Amino acid sequence: MNIGQASEASGVSAKMIRYYEEIGLIRPAARTGNNYRVYGEAEVHVLRFIKRARSLGFSLEETETLLKLWQDKSRESAAVRRVATAHIGDLERRIAEMQGMVKTLKHLAHCCSGNERPDCPILDDLAGDSSAAGAS
Amino acid sequence: MNIGQASEASGVSAKMIRYYEEIGLIRPAARTGNNYRVYGEAEVHVLRFIKRARSLGFSLEETETLLKLWQDKSRESAAVRRVATAHIGDLERRIAEMQGMVKTLKHLAHCCSGNERPDCPILDDLAGDSSAAGAS
DNA sequence: GTAGGGCTTCCCACCATGGGAAGGTCAAGG
DNA sequence: CCTTGACCTTCCCATGGTGGGAAGCCCTAC
């Protein structure tokens, strides 16, 4: 299987497969005589694992940890769960941060007449005008 | 006022002030004889505006738009609100995406015994094992 | 033989920010 | 007068992931 087929089969772009190899996330692929990378089912399985981990928001570093745990048959599931719960905490922190932004923005947008006149509480807030409507 | 004081007064690092100047987000600061940048209250006000916009999650590009609208006395508040509501939509999309991740992860983490044994539904899910507990 | 598609490596871009080196400038204090 | 330290300047590099594209090799089909 060439890199194109592996990409197709895993959903990871060829570009990214090479990159993952370069940074050591996956082992260097075997090469044919013409220097093409070759992949088998096992490699594609790894790529799909990575793809899925990325789609759950894990960083490449976390993904590497998870990959190693996956391949370590004597792992403790507690270690896996620690990675996952840390990531959950991370996501929740970022979600909360963004929700705070949304809350403020919705309030400001609500207070903004949104017509042809120039006065705008959104800009007032950004400008630090403390008399702006509910600048949280 | 030197760049250090402007940084102090605005909460924007000196590094970023220079960067904002370089990309044209703010006008090039005046210079003293010794080539130091000089700032006044007006410039600090702009920097604080940028700082606040960034803290609400606006990109530098959106911030530039808002900055121009702020400085355009004949703006229509509708234009400002369009930028804000687009950004709200963006944030909400990202929040929803992350919440989906959290939901899946929490379920998997809940199903994981988290002890010293190796079997782990989190890894099963990542590995694409469709018999994994509730792999959404 | 040529055309096309795939593969290779290499460099560049994004977005925003920080780190740090090498060198100029200024004020205070010995 | 000289040193020290705290500023400032420009310049390059790194991050995290991903994509774009060029230049060149390889293979197959026509």
TrEMBL record, chains A, B:
InterPro entries: CueR (IPR011789), DNA-bd_dom_put_sf (IPR009061), MerR-type_HTH_dom (IPR000551), MerR_fam (IPR047057), Tscrpt_reg_MerR_DNA-bd (IPR015358)
Presence of keyword Transcription regulation: yes
GO BP of this protein: positive regulation of DNA-templated transcription
Protein name: Cu(I)-responsive transcriptional regulator
Main location: cytoplasm
An MF annotation (GO) of this entry: copper ion binding
Domain HTH merR-type: 1-69
Protein origin, superkingdom: Bacteria
Subcellular location: Cytoplasm
SMART domains, per database record: HTH_MERR
Keyword Transcription: yes
PANTHER family documented for this protein: HEAVY METAL-DEPENDENT TRANSCRIPTIONAL REGULATOR HI_0293-RELATED, REDOX-CYCLING DRUG-SENSING TRANSCRIPTIONAL ACTIVATOR SOXR
Organism: Rhizobium deserti
GO CC annotation terms, alphabetical: cytoplasm
Alphabetic keyword roster: Cytoplasm, DNA-binding, Transcription, Transcription regulation
